[in-house]
Specification:
Blueprint (H helix, E strand, L loop, with lengths): L9 E2 L2 E3 L2 E3 L5 E6 L4 E7 L3 H19 L3 H17 L1 H12 L3 H18 L2 H4 L4 E6 L2 E9 L2 E5 L7 H12 L3 E5 L6 H12 L7 E3 L4 H9 L3 E7 L2 H13 L3 E5 L4 E5 L5 H13 L9 E7 L3 H14 L18 H16 L3 E4 L16 E4 L6 H4 L6 E7 L2 H10 L2 E2 L1 E5 L3 H10 L4 E4 L15 E2 L2 E2 L6 H7 L1 E9 L17
Parallel strand pairs: 1-5, 8-9, 8-11, 9-10, 11-12, 13-14, 13-19, 14-17, 16-17, 19-20
Antiparallel strand pairs: 2-3, 4-5, 6-7, 7-23, 12-22, 15-16, 18-21
Bound molecules: nicotinamide-adenine-dinucleotide.
The site of nicotinamide-adenine-dinucleotide has 27 residues, from helix 8.
Length: 502
């Protein structure tokens, strides 16, 4: 909602110990990208406020940790119902602050809701293992215990879904949590904190702080934080990973992407082009699973580019809440300029500009840019090497599937990829040889499935465990192994030497 410039802007509060708080000090602006206007202000927390949030989470930890998982699951069940009831309202906040279309925003909220559905099964997921007679009259069992206070640091492009990848799983496992959402899209996290409280979550279990590097560093360096989940760009992911390693924190840091789709000549090209158009330009290309590079193999090249050109030009650009709009604006003015700069660089480097987003007719206000398509791009060009994170699709040519696989495998990013083909053998080979974390076969974006974990390889993930699904249970718990001896009557006492098991 826009406010006339002369009205005092609302400040998005932080959420500490179950209450909103509007701190004084540094702050930033929150924009509606469809109008270009500042709609809210967001406080930038300093170390003392972050400390307050961590202390609230630490104080809530003993009681929450000891709450039986079934009771924790009941709170999550209530939260799930409230999220479903508020799905449209949350989607609307996403559209207001991020700019993506409302149906797209609602879809992303749905993906997050599915993680909470999965988290409701936590009593079963936390069960350990038991071995009777690991030694004579000695039994061994393992159990999973929470790690402590966890922190989550999230990007701008999924203001509801990415936080929901993290905190419901961490909290279901018995941890308490401090979330630092992107300062560009801060409001949805506060709404989720209110809903979680309404669901019956005790105060202090979930806290939200806002800010930039200062708040993030305060979390990374805080002795009270045991584990950090991060999703964002590769340079920051690497920094988070290295800093947490130095301070001995458990860490998973998901980074950026350059996702390739390989299209073989035997593919249904009309179907592939439709799928790629959605995957490249949906959410204005600001998705970590966006397809940003197409590798057209052999005879697929020219007809595919013709189809992509037609479909890219047909995309309707406008404000995300307007019915019938396919693509909204970019998130901020500087980001729009950065993406436009990449297009300029592509032209200078000699790629063939098939559709120029800078020239398309888009609303004058706001941070809009039309769709761009480049052909005959080579791996040396910056439009191929850099993650543009905007509505720019580049097409490279390869002669064979083998060449295409080698090209994808040389790229340092490895979040997602896809192949379009009618050949089961080619698809199988691709799935087997490609060095990427998530693979689509005739599916442009392998969207997150809550009960599988989500994460890329190489520069797209620093750490060992992916987010949500069973890997989240591993990340947010520590395993303990307990060995017990209850001797039967008349059993002699063990001797001095180490007994042989079995
Ligand atoms: P970003 O890295 O700029 O910011 C992510 C978070 O880090 C934000 O909360 C931000 O406040 C914080 N941050 C920014 N600069 C920092 C610094 N110097 N020190 C400490 N913290 C800092 O990312 P973004 O622009 O918000 O999001 C887009 C990026 O996220 C893209 O690269 C995209 O590919 C990636 N992403 C990846 C996934 C995935 O699953 N791998 C999912 C979504 C987004």
């Amino acid at each position: 909602m826009n406010k006339p410039a002369d009205l005092k802007l609302e400040t998005v509060p932080v959420w500490i110990n179950g209450k909103p708080l509007a701190p004084a000090g540094r702050s930033g602006e929150v924009f509606n990208p469809a109008t270009g206007q500042v709609t809210r202000r967001v406080p930038f927390c300093d170390a003392s406020l972050v400390d307050k949030a961590v202390k609230a989470a630490a104080a809530a930890l003993p009681a929450w940790r000891d709450t039986p998982p079934l009771r924790r699951a009941r709170v999550l069940q209530n939260f799930l119902e409230l999220l479903k009831k508020n799905q449209r309202a949350l989607g609307t906040i996403v559209t207001q602050e991020h700019g993506k279309t409302l149906p797209d925003a609602m879809g992303s909220v749905q993906r997050g809701i599915e993680v909470v559905e999965f988290a409701c099964g936590i009593p079963h997921l936390l069960k350990g293992e038991y071995a009777e007679n690991a030694g004579t009259q000695v039994d061994t069992h393992s159990l999973r215990q929470p790690v402590g206070v966890c922190a989550g640091i999230t990007p701008f492009n999924f203001p509801v879904m990415v936080p929901l990848w993290m905190f419901p799983m961490a909290i279901a496992c018995g941890n308490t949590f401090v979330l630092k959402p992107s300062e560009k899209v801060p409001s949805a996290s506060i709404r989720m904190a209110e809903l979680f409280k309404e669901a019956g979550l005790p105060d202090g279990v979930f806290n939200v702080v806002h800010g930039d590097k200062e708040a993030v560093d305060a979390l990374l360096l805080h002795e009270g934080i045991s584990a950090v989940s991060f999703v964002g760009s590769t340079p920051i992911a690497k920094y988070i990973y290295e800093t947490c390693a130095k301070t001995g924190k458990r860490v998973q840091a998901l980074g950026g992407a350059k996702n390739h789709a390989v299209v073989l000549p035997d593919a249904d090209l009309e179907f592939a082009a439709d799928a790629l158009t959605g995957a490249a330009y949906g959410s204005a290309g600001e998705r970590c699973m966006a397809i940003s590079a197409v590798v057209a193999v052999g005879a697929a090249g020219d007809p595919l580019v013709n189809l992509l050109e037609r479909k890219a030009k047909a995309i309707k650009v406008g404000a995300g809440h307007t019915e019938g709009v396919d693509m909204g604006p970019l998130v901020t003015g500087p980001h729009r300029e950065k993406v436009a700069g990449h297009i300029e660089a592509g032209v200078k480097e000699g790629a063939k500009l098939v559709v120029d987003g800078r020239a398309s007719s888009v609303p004058k206000q706001g941070f809009f840019l039309g769709t761009t398509l480049f052909d005959h791009v080579t791996p040396e060009m910056s439009i191929y090497r850099d993650e543009i994170f905007g509505p720019v699709l580049v097409v490279l040519r390869a002669s064979t599937l083998e060449e295409a696989i080698a090209l994808v495998n040389r790229n340092p990013y490895a979040n997602g990829t896809a192949i379009f083909t009618e050949s089961g053998g080619a698809a199988r080979r691709f799935g087997n040889e490609i060095q990427v974390g998530m693979v689509g076969i005739n599916v442009p974006i392998p969207v997150p499935v809550a009960y599988f974990s989500f994460g890329g390889w190489k520069n797209s993930l620093f750490g060992d465990l992916h987010v949500h699904g069973v890997e989240a249970v591993k990340f947010y718990t520590r395993t303990k192994v307990i060995t017990t001896r209850w001797p039967h009557q008349d059993t002699p006492a063990p001797g001095f030497n180490m007994p042989t098991l079995g």
